[in-house]
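During the no-cost extension, the postdoctoral fellow (Dr. R.K.) reprocessed legacy sequence entries with the updated structure-token encoder. One reprocessed record is reproduced below for audit purposes.
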Amino acid sequence: MAPEELVLADLVDALIQERLFGFGDGVLEDGWYRVGQVSVRVRAGGALQSHRFARGPVLIAGRQASPDELISHLARDQPHVGQVATDLRTAVANAELARAAEEDLDGGAVLDPLTAERLAWARNRPFHPTARAVAGWSTEELSTYGPTRRDPLGLDWIAVRADHLRHGEGTPPAELARLLLGEAEAHRLAAETRPGFVLLPVHPWQSRHVLPREFASELDAGLILPVARGLGEFRPTASLRTLASPDPATHVKLPLGVATLGATRLLPPRYLDNGERAELALRAALASDPLLRSVVTVCDERGWVGWNGDEFADRPGQLAAQLRRYPPQARGAVPMAAFASPRLYPHGIRLPEGPLPFFRRLCHRFCLLALGFLSKGMLPEVHGQNVAVTLENGMPSLFVLRDHDTVRVHPPWLADAGIADPEYRVRQGARQSLRLDDPTELVGYFQTLGVQVNLYGIADALARSFGIAERTLWKQLRVALTEAMDLVRLPRQVSTLLLREPTWPSRHVLGPLLRSGNSPGASMPAAAGTVPNPLLC
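Re-encoded structure tokens follow.
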């Protein structure tokens, strides 16, 4: 598909699934799906919805319409339609840029991690209409700072007075420069730094556009001192704010004052602290379960440092840094989101045993991961950006978890498994999205993020690339899930929720953006919906 069609496809599919503006009740006439003045060509929607976008054009009263024109026509009474329309225009422009990610594909058997990160960014979150937009960056800035950049990117460095920082229990803040720049460069910078100050990396865009505004008084008072610009060689990854260092086992995560998926890419210290607490819970689960250890490991993300201000304000999240260290057995791991890129098959990787055995094994091991953690009363954020996987002879082998700040828990199941409550720090009176009293909510995050976003994104790419019927892939998932259930001891209601209930929860993303706009904080706008249970198709 052309870039505009890619964005139209996600937009039309979201309109139909969320039943917005009459799109759940359109009329089929002469091969067109008609809703008022709008006409679009659709195909059978598969297990999750009645219809899906087939091909362009989309017409409004007989005139061809772009994605932003379509949403402006349909949602003209919604308070944030202007921002969504702008993001859709940006998404089309950025989809053009994303084609550069596909130029690296050479049909080899080994998928390079950085190439995989570019592919993961090119699709980003599957089925989200504005996924390719970066609010706050032009397409030129995305080309400069995003994962399609060909040359390494240097980071800016500042010195911050130590008594204005808070940090985790992992790698000491004083070690950041040495681990990211090497002994010689770190020693040179340290010699230029006043006693009682800590060297911190800052993304160069953040250094120029955000720090002077958000921390003007601290810069004037000498609490924050600029030290150097453009040091080191780092490669942007799919998340934009995470960069790979010359050591492939070490990434650095830095805040950015831009928004993707409706959420600002901040690093609030309380998120980093909650992530450290969650990592301890994940490691406790792995220590108690040999089967779980055989399919998944975790990155060490306990080395972090951030501005010590009001932990529930956004401002401290603009100045922070976190080290991500991959364990040795996760070498070469690639984000699962890369496998949701149709261009990967067959141009970027060979599947020696074919697409169905590949998908079946991926699903089986992924279900062991998810069910294993559910049996302990917790679930990591299992979408395709946060879960990476190693390949062995072209087949999925070991998963690795990264970004631990949204590991959700159900305390009674956690206690039954003998795992300590992480005791997350959350704003008093705020809605609890990490600590869930209802276990169906915990299972629901597997159904939505794990299956409908992650695995279905991959299934959709395989179906389009190899001409496989979607129903066949859902059957492969059902078999893989039932086999995994035979190996993991779970509360009975988990099987009922996954295999017998006629509907599953779903996540609406377009409606919340139109109604509420981008989130002022770091959480993505979303609302709950329902879809047919795809495993009953």
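The chain has a mean pLDDT of 94. The chain is about 40% helix and 20% strand. The remaining legacy entries will be reprocessed before the final report is submitted.
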